[in-house]
Amino acid sequence: MFQDITTLLLDHKAFRDTIDLFVERYKSKNISVVAGIEARGFIFGPPIALAIGAKFVPMRKPKKLPGEVISEEYTLEYGKDCLEMHVEAVEEGDRALVVDDVIATGGTLCAAMSLLERVGAEVVECACVIELPDLEGRKRLKGKPLFVLVESR
Fold first, then answer.
1. What is the pTM of this model?
2. CA separation for the pair 39, 59 (Å, rounded)
3. Does residue 152 lie in a domain region?
4. Which domain holds residue 60?
5. Is 77 an annotated catalytic residue?
6. Looking at 24, 73, 77, 136, which residue is catalytic?
7. What is the pLDDT of residues 81-125, one digit of tens each?
8. Which residue out of 40, 60, 125, 138 is catalytically annotated?
9. In a domain, 149, yes or no
10. Which of 31, 70, 93, 134 has the most CB within a 10 Å radius?
11. R_g of the chain computed on alpha carbons
12. Domain holding 34: CATH number?
């Protein structure tokens, strides 16, 4: 079943409250990078990054980023995909937060964490608006903490 965040985005107060909940959680965790996963991670990542004083790094589908990139393939509940990140966007020692709208099987978050760790960043936590716990994506996160606002069955 597809989970959609459109109703959240249409309600400016609910959208602001959602961003505020994330900001409150991360403002004192010394995060230097907020990595947002295409496409809906781009909705939540930039306002969080701005509010906590971090840079925003987009994680995009292949051939969407100019310049030199590194890639990570991963499996989804419905096939395979790939994420890319600019090579010099993240530096060794950066403390990263990975943001997306939904965690299902966890493949996309794992790919994002792998990209960040390959360049020497420390992934502090993953954050999603919705978790689909029946798909057990949390189990694939290699013990990294996951913060979610809503569980959906």
1. 0.95
2. 9
3. no
4. 5-141
5. yes
6. 77
7. 999 999 999 999 999 999 999 999 999 999 999 999 999 999 999
8. 40
9. no
10. 31
11. 14
12. 3.40.50.2020
Instruction: Encode pLDDT of 116-142 as tens digits.
Output: 999 999 999 999 999 999 999 999 998
Report whether 112 contacts 35 (CB < 8 A): yes
Residue 147 domain-assigned (yes or no): no
For CA atoms 130, 135, 136, 140, the dihedral sign is negative
Residue keyed to tokens 């057990």: 136
| Alpha-carbon distance values, 126 to 10, 12, 69, 79, 118 (Å) | 24, 24, 22, 22, 17
Quickly tell me which residue has 């990054």 as its tokens.
Answer: 49
Give the count of domains, the chain.
1
Q: For residue 151, is it within any domain? A: no
| Catalytic (active site) residue 40 | yes
Give me the residue label for tokens 């943001």.
99
